[in-house]
Structures are given as structure tokens and as C-alpha cells.
Amino acid sequence: MSSLPPEILDRRDRAKAWFESLQQRICAELQRLEDEAAPDLYGGPAGRFEFRPWTRETGVGGGTGGHLRGRLFEKAGVHTSAATARFSPEMASQMPGADKDPSYVSASISLIVHPLSPRVPTVHMNTRFLSTAESWFGGGADLTPMLDAHRSQDADDAKVFHAAMKAACDAFDPEWHARYKAWCDEYFFLPHRNEPRGIGGIFYDRHDTGNFEKDFAFTRAVGEAFLEVYPRIVRSRMNEPWTEAERAEQLVRRGRYVEFNLLYDRGTMFGLKAGGNIETILSSMPPTVAWT
């Protein structure tokens, strides 16, 4: 179906294999955290991921949705997808290279974790490879503490998370972190409330230095950094007791998450318009939310 050269298809296949292996490693680590959760704070059995394969309705491809409803993680989704397809005229007009040929290939991983404890921050991460007549990587990771007391850039969790993302960037170019951190702060912002969604992280798109191997290695480094830092943050917070007032604050903060994802998130819009799986796309929605 694709008119793209074999080299591009091979690159997509390599990216797909990486994202699928990362999915399995992240899910295994989240399940270990479920096992470690303190029984006096988290009742019931430890959660386990359910993997649900899906097939695209348009084009060729699909993916695997990893879904967890646990005791430590009230809801988590870790999903992979890959496609060989053609953009609609509307979408082709917005994609570099698609004006020459609307064919494209893609591969990605996307995850969202909503902990039960308001003291454990919510996290989002996604990385992807997309190729039209041009090829690039995109993605990033961002952290959303649920309590105002933890939402400062000077808070411990923020410092740890930003340091991990900076190290992933600095290994390739010392200028990337400042650029991608600022882009994250700009992107994950709710204009109608004049507030950030969380404490940020990094965000990058159309990342193409002209060196595929370097760019692919950088995207792998972002995934490795996430896999190391988020479980470390969870373990530092998961056994802290919380109050009903903190739980109420968490549910309101989750409402901001819903507002951003439905009003502004380009990934959500892209997935829905490109024939993605609705269940995985909308799994970013928190299980319980409140508005005041």
C-alpha cells in the first residue's frame, strides 16, 4: 500500500520493535510496583495488565492496548500502534511531506498512569516515528503532581523528573533540554484557566537532525529515562498516607487533565482522525474526576 521506499519501512519496523519491547518492560515494572504496595493503604489484589490487540479500520496495521486497573494504580494504559496508510486530504495538508505523497508509516508507544494515591503524581509519556516523504520522531514525557504542595518546580519530584529528562537530552546535544522543556511548558498549558497542566518535562516533534540513528537513539533514551525515573518517584511516595481532603484535591486536578486532553491535545485529535483505536486513545481519561 505504501509508496515509501524500503529503507523507510525498515526504519518503521525497527521503531515498532523497540516500542513493543519498551511496552512490555514498563508494564512489568508497574506490576512490580502493584505487588509492593502497602496492604494497609491499598486493599485488594495487585493489578495485572490485560493486553488487547486491535486492527485499524483504515489502512494496514493496528496495535496492542495494555490496560490495568489496580490497587496502587487506579488506572493505567500502556499502548503501542503501527500503521501503513494514507492521510486524508485534510490531514495531508498539515503534515510535512504529505503534500507530495499522502502515504505514511508510523509506530508509537503512549502511556498514562493515574495512581490512586494523591501523593503519587500522574505521568504521561509517548514517543513515535512517522514518515511521509519526510521522516521524524516526536514525543516526550511530563509529570503532573496532584497536590498544590507538590506542584512547584522546586519540589523534590519535579527536580528528580527534570534531571532525568535533562540527562537523556544532554547525552546527544546540550541545547536540546532547554528547548524541549520550554516546548513542553508551552504545550501542556490550559489557556482557558491560565495554568499549566503539571510541572512539565520535555516535548518534541518533527525531530530530524538528518541522522536517523542518532534520533532513534535519543528517542530510546527518553524511554529508558522514563522507565528509570517514574518508578523511583512512585516508590518514594507510594507508602505515604493521605487525607480525604487530598483525595478531593486530586479529583479536581484530574478534571484539568480531562479538559486538556479533549480540548487541546494534538495526539488525541490525530489518533481519532487517523483511524486509531478509540479505547486506547481515550484511556488517558481518569477513572474518577470532580469539578468544583
Question: How would you describe what is shown here?
Answer:
The chain is of the alpha+beta class. The protein has a single domain, classed as 3-Layer(aba) Sandwich (oxygen-dependent coproporphyrinogen oxidase), CATH 3.40.1500. It has 8 helices and 9 strands. Strand 7 and strand 8 form a beta hairpin. Helix 1 runs parallel beside helix 5 (212-237) and helix 3 packs antiparallel against helix 5 (212-237). The chain is globular. The termini are far apart.
Write the layout of secondary structure elements.
Layout: H1 6-36, E1 50-55, E2 60-68, E3 73-86, H2 89-92, E4 103-115, E5 122-131, E6 135-144, H3 156-170, H4 176-187, E7 189-190, E8 195-196, E9 200-207, H5 212-237, H6 244-263, H7 266-273, H8 278-281
Antiparallel strand pairs: 1-2, 2-3, 3-4, 4-5, 5-6, 6-9, 7-8
Mean pLDDT: 92
CATH architecture label:
3-Layer(aba) Sandwich
The class by helix and strand makeup works out as alpha+beta
Strand proportion? 25-35%
Q: What is the molecular shape?
A: globular
Contiguous helical run count: 8
Q: Based on the structure, what is the oligomeric state of the protein chains?
A: single chain
Number of domains: 1
Number of strands: 9
CATH class: Alpha Beta
What Rg, in angstroms, do the CA atoms define?
Answer: 19 Å
Give a short account of the largest sheet: 7 strands, antiparallel
Return the string of H and E elements. HEEEHEEEHHEEEHHHH
